[in-house]
Amino acid sequence: MSLSGVCVTAVESRPGSTSQALKALGEGALGGTSQGPVDRPFGARVKAFVALTKPRIIELLLITTVPVMFLAQQGVPDLKLVLLTCVGGYLSAGGANALNMYIDRDIDALMDRTSQRPLVTGMVSPPECLAFGITLAVVSTLLFGLTVNWLSAWLSLGALLFYVVVYTMLLKRRTAQNIVWGGIAGCMPVLIGWSAVTDSISWAPVILFLVIFFWTPPHYWPLSMKVKDDYARVGVPMLPVVASNKVVARQIVVYSWVMVVVSLLLTPLGYTGWFYTAVALAAGGWWLWEAHALQNRARAEVTGAKLKEMRLFHWSITYVSLLFVAVAVDPFLR
User: Fold this and answer.
1) Is the pLDDT of residue 33 over 60?
2) Using an 8 Å Cβ cutoff, are 88 and 156 in contact?
3) What's the whole-model pTM score?
4) Is 243 left (phi over 0), alpha (psi -120 to 50) or beta?
5) How far are the Cα atoms of 177, 275, 283, 319, 323 from residue 266, in angstroms, in the given order?
6) Percentage of the chain surpassing pLDDT 70?
7) Is-contact 60 105, C-beta < 8 A?
8) How confident is the model at residue 58 (pLDDT cuts 50, 70, 90)?
9) Do residues 163 and 95 lie in contact, with contact meaning Cβ atoms separated by under 8 Å?
10) For residues 79, 187, 221 and 240, what is the CA-based torsion angle, rounded to 10 degrees?
11) What is the rounded CA–CA span in Å between residue 118 and residue 132?
12) Cβ atoms of residues 37 and 113 within 8 Å
């Protein structure tokens, strides 16, 4: 699966300061200058390479993959197939994330929330990161093709290339719609989970693909509102950088309503039953409550901590987890 969408987002841990990042840049962290073994111990290096894969984000992406395999099987899928799909997905997503860090290493050094990434600190050099990302991309594609099926392999590779080339290289620094269209890569795991079981695509994974597509902007924009100064500093035109909080909140509400409506299409088409419908209604209703509350605060020109934009960001992760757990459980209750 190319779980390569980094459209599912986790807040970076241990944020550093811009001054620290600039110091690291000055010391050659981005130029691949070799540091001594004392500065780069083996254990720290291993952790750094793992960090290149963004494992916290991949955990969330697996939540959108494995449940779809249960839905496709209408029961418990072959556990070996699930394991191979998860391993292939992790490697594919890890490769995409490493290549993303390689391309974005210049702006990562200037943003507080990314200033402790391995390329910025110098724990991993740019050539090492590039080789690591390409290797993971090749291995994951071959693993999918040889052990799952080639449809899943091509979907995985397509998602990886879309994230790296279309989102990171073409969209991210050029348009405020970057996360909207770039989020397509993060939608691909549902197609891959389904194709891993059936070696085909049907309307059920397409609907779930659209759920994640419309989920991604209102998931990510609240975080962007929180850290918009970071993005503004490096010239990345995330919507909160180029538009007011009122405009961003209005867009969040629009995408949220479309997402909830799309999530309810599985039941009338016969793919899910009462349990999924109940969870989708309850979780979606709470999401809409939070989205409208954020819009009301934005309209009132509330700023700073009182805007509480991160409430929706954190709930968005809970929402997608609940929805896809319901996708997995529903076949057993029909």
Assistant:
1) no
2) yes
3) 0.87
4) beta
5) 28, 12, 15, 17, 12
6) 88
7) no
8) confident
9) no
10) 150
11) 13
12) no
